[in-house]
Write a structure and sequence with these properties.
- The chain is α+β, with helices and mostly antiparallel strands and 469 residues long.
- Helices cover 54% and strands 17% of the residues.
- The strands form 3 sheets. It has a 5-stranded antiparallel sheet, with helices on both faces. A 5-stranded mixed sheet has the order 7-9-10-12-11.
- Helix 5 packs antiparallel against helix 6 and helix 6 packs across helix 9.
- The longest helix is centred in the N-terminal third of the chain and has 51 residues.
- The two termini are 36 Å apart.
Length: 469
């Protein structure tokens, strides 16, 4: 599922949700308008009928009460709209004396507009719940005024609003149906539109991530001649140019590395020859040792650069065979430990009693990985004067751990230290590709190389290699 921070989420929030709210407001407004219109028309019709009937009966008000009563009963019996509207005559005490539904139509009504009509001598409406039946009704009461000015009762029209409410409900349902149909069309058309944006954007994002991870030259398929198409063209052009620049860089590094190997080999050979002379004075011998050390360091850098270019263009291959990796690791630790001892750094190897089987790997390349990690620990953690190394068997993996006791790696640099040429805030000399090459070699073996800060300080490098591939 996509989060609401995505394009689809913002589209849903800004378009669908807003349209939904506006649509519901419109449905409510239409429903309220129709309800008001229907109720107003019914009230006006009943008001008009009450006024007309009151005017008609004004001719009978001068009769004695008995004749007046009989006139009410007769009129109620002959009332033509008794199926939809009830006509009631109520005396001054609030007692029902005649009804178009019959004399025993029910209890005397108690709605408030009856008393109000008698008190104010004006026609009063009522809309609400009938206290006796619980039914929703609409009623209009008109005062019946005797010739001497005395209010002798009210003429009342009353009807159930059930049919009217049903009509209003039908209007509401119709409005909701139209709203839902419009929303369905909006969702379908908008979803098609947003998909036409999201699918190319997803592809662009995926290809851009590949480019960011080093897959230069990857191209994005252009689907539309619009802004997204222009973005795809721009990224494709950027990818091609980066690929070309990377190739030029790799070719330059490879050529330079090859050119450097010849003079370095000569310097190394002559240095060893000169150091073999027993007649050298101490100062000259010390200088030649410095030259030998720096030449060795340069040679290692050249080897890293050559391996890096081979990895970049896919020319680095592995010579895999079953290998005693513990033996290779112990030899590397012993050899490098002697060199570190001269610099005052103690390299401690924690031996394990576990039986570690031979595993399929390239012994030469794995030795190179171990040397790179140890060299990195010496450069960046040497001030801790202590490095620890171990090898264990954990489930189906041979696990190598190398820890230094230096300052560690800044947390914000941890995700970046394995990237090529990355040196971060370190002031130590180097190319910044040793760990990148080591990581690629381990990955080619189906393993992982992880860096983290160890508890108590220092950096910890963990290499996991599968026992079988």
């Amino acid at each position: 599922m996509r989060k609401f921070s995505s394009l689809r989420g913002r589209w849903f929030t800004n378009t669908v949700a807003v349209c939904c709210v506006l649509g519901l407001v419109c449905v409510l407004a239409v429903s309220a308008t129709f309800a008001g219109y229907y109720y107003s028309n019914m009230r006006s019709d009943m008001y008009s009928r009450a006024w007309q009937t009151s005017e008609f009966f004004s001719d009978y008000i001068g009769q004695n009460y008995e004749d007046y009563y009989q006139s009410c009963v007769t009129y109620a019996k002959t009332f033509e709209m008794r199926n939809s509207l009830e006509l009631q005559f109520i005396n001054a005490d609030g007692v029902l004396v005649a009804s178009s539904y019959g004399y025993w139509a029910g209890n005397s009504p108690t709605t408030p507009e009856i008393a109000e009509a008698m008190q104010t001598r004006t026609i009063k409406p009522f809309t609400g719940i009938n206290p006796d039946t619980g039914e929703r009704i609409m009623a209009v009461s008109s005062p019946m005024i005797y010739s001497n000015g005395e209010v002798v009762g009210v003429l009342r029209y009353v009807t159930s609003t059930r049919l009217l409410d049903l009509q209003i409900l039908q209007v509401v349902l119709l409005a909701l149906g139209v709203f839902l149909a419009v929303m369905a069309v909006l969702l379908l058309t908008s979803n098609y539109f947003i998909r036409s944006i999201l699918i190319p954007v997803d592809e662009i994002t995926e290809k851009a991530k590949k480019i960011a991870n080093g897959s230069y030259g990857v191209r994005i398929q252009k689907q539309y001649n619009d802004e997204i198409g222009d973005l795809a063209d721009t990224i494709n052009e950027m990818s091609v140019k980066i690929s070309q620049n990377e190739k030029m860089q790799a070719d330059f590094i490879s050529s330079l590395s090859h050119e450097l190997r010849t003079p370095l080999t000569a310097i190394t050979g002559w240095t060893e020859t000169i150091l073999g002379d027993d007649d050298l004075d101490s100062q000259t011998r010390r200088g030649m040792k410095i030259i030998a050390g720096e030449t060795r360091r340069l040679t290692e850098m050249v080897v890293d650069l050559l391996d890096f270019t081979r990895l970049q263009d896919g020319r680095l291959t592995l010579n895999v065979e079953d290998t005693d990796l513990r033996g290779e690791f112990e030899d590397t630790v012993y050899m490098y430990g002697s060199r570190l001892a001269q610099e005052g750094v103690q390299l401690t190897y924690h031996d394990s009693d576990e039986d570690i089987p031979e595993i399929p790997c390239d012994a030469k390349r794995m030795r190179q990985v171990f040397l790179n990690i140890l060299d990195n620990a010496a450069k960046h953690g040497g001030e801790g004067k202590r490095i620890e190394a171990s090898m264990t068997l954990e489930e189906d993996f041979v696990v190598v751990r190398i820890r230094d006791y230096g300052p560690g790696i800044p947390e914000d640099e941890l995700p970046l230290v394995k990237k090529k040429f990355y040196k971060g805030s370190s002031k130590v000399r180097g190319t910044g590709i040793g760990l990148a090459v080591s990581d690629d070699i381990v990955a080619m073996h189906g393993g992982t190389l992880e860096l983290e800060n160890a508890p108590g300080g220092g950096a910890l490098v963990t290499v996991r290699l599968p026992v079988s591939q």
